[in-house]
Amino acid sequence: MTRRSVVTGCGRYLPERIVTNDELAKRVDTSDEWIQQRTGICERRIAADGEKTSDLAINAAQKALSSAGISADDVDLIVLATATPDETFPATATRVQAALGMTKGAAFDIQAVCTGFIYALNIADNFIRLGQANTALVIGAETFSRILDWEDRSTCVLFGDGAGAIVLQGTDNSDSAAPRGILSNHLHSDGRHHDCLYVDGGPSSTQTVGHLRMEGPEVFKHAVNNMASVLGEALAANDMTAEDIDWLVPHQANKRILDSTARKLKLSREKVVITIDRHANTSAASIPLALYEAITDGRIQEDDIVVMEAMGGGFTWGASLIRW
Ligand code: ACO
C-alpha cells in the first residue's frame, strides 16, 4: 500500500495596501498601459511598514489550519518557501511555528525563489510518504517589495507581497484505481543562469540585503521552455496528456508567459488559473495564492487533475501533479 499526501486545507494572506500601476507611474517612467500589455499586471499588494514575511505566513497558515479543521497540535512539519526571510537566521518557519504554539515536529525554510513552493511541496510530500511526518503546513510567503530597486522600472513594476499556505496530510488510498493526492513531483535547477536573475547582496558577499536584478527577456525565453518541458515531463510520468488536466495552477510571473505555455501545450486558456492581474509576481507565494482562489470559488473539485508548475532564479523549475 502506497502512502500519498492529500491537500486538506488552504489559506492566504494579502497585505491591505493595494498599489496600482498608475501609482507606480508617479514614481518611475512607466504607464498602466505598458505594464498591462507586457505583463497582465493591474495592481499588487505591498506589506505595511514593519510587516514581515512571518506575519504574512502566520496569517495564511492559521487560515489553512482552520479550513482543514485541525489545530496546530496536529501539525508535525512546517516547510516554508521564501527568498525574503525575516532574518538571515533562524528560519522564518520557526517564527511561524512559535506563533502557532507548536513545540513539536520540525520547521525549516527552503529557498528556490519562484519555484520555492514546488520544492517545499515535494519535500513535505517525501516526509509524509516516508512516514516521517503525517500533517504538514506548506507555506509560500514573500515580501519582495523589500528587495526591489524602486528606481528600476524594468523590475519594480513586476512584483508584489503575499502568502499562501496548504495543509498536506498522509492517506493510504492507493489501492483505489484512481488514488487521490500528489501523484508526482519534478524538480530541476541549472546554476549556470545565475546572472539572469539574482539579488546583488547577501551576508557572505556584500553584507547587505541587496536588490533584485533581472535580464527580463532572457528569463522570459527560458520560462516558457522550462515550464512547458516540465509540464510535459509530469504528464508523461503519469501516462497523461494535456487533455487530462482539469486545472493548471502556474507560478504567476507574466500573463504572456502563461499564455505562451498554454499555447505550446495546446491547453485551453480557461483551464489556467490566473491571479497575476491583482497580485503581480509574489514569487514562492504565487502558486498557493492562485490555488486558494480556485479552491474557494469552487473551480477545483475532488478527483480533478491539478498541475502546479514554476520557474525562478537559479534557474530552478519544477511541477507537481495531483489528483485532488
Ligand atoms: N515601463 C515602460 N517601459 C519599460 C518598462 C516599464 N516598466 N520596463 C522596461 N521598459 C522598456 C525598456 O527600457 C525597453 O525600452 P527600449 O526598447 O527603449 O530599450 C522596452 O520597454 C522593452 O523592454 P524589454 O525588457 O525588451 O521588454 P519585454 O517585452 O521583454 O518585457 C518583462 C519585460 C516584462 C520583464 C519580460 O521580459 C518578462 O516578464 N520577463 C520574465 C520575468 C519573469 O518571468 N520572472 C520570473 C522569475 S522571477 C523570480 O524568480 C524572482
Can you tell me about this structure?
By secondary structure, the chain is α/β, with parallel strands linked by helices. The protein folds into two domains: 4-171, Peroxisomal Thiolase, Chain A, domain 1 (3-Layer(aba) Sandwich), CATH 3.40.47; 181-323, 3-Layer(aba) Sandwich (Peroxisomal Thiolase, Chain A, domain 1). The chain has helices spanning 21-25, 32-39, 53-68, 92-100, 116-130, 153-156, 216-237, 255-264, 276-279, 286-296; strands at residues 4-13, 17-20, 43-46, 77-81, 106-110, 135-143, 161-171, 181-189, 197-199, 212-214, 247-250, 305-312, 316-323. Strands 1-7-6-4-5 form a five-stranded mixed sheet, with helices on both faces. A hairpin with a 3-residue loop joins β12 (305-312) and β13. α3 packs across α4 (92-100) and α7 packs across α8 (255-264). The longest helix has 22 residues, at 216-237. The protein is globular, with a radius of gyration of 18 Å. The two termini are 19 Å apart. The relative contact order is 0.19. The model has no long low-confidence stretch (mean pLDDT 97). Acetyl coenzyme *A (ACO) binds at residues 30, 34-35, 38-39, 113-114, 153-154, 157, 197, 216-217, 219-220, 223, 253-254, 257, 281, 283, 312-313.
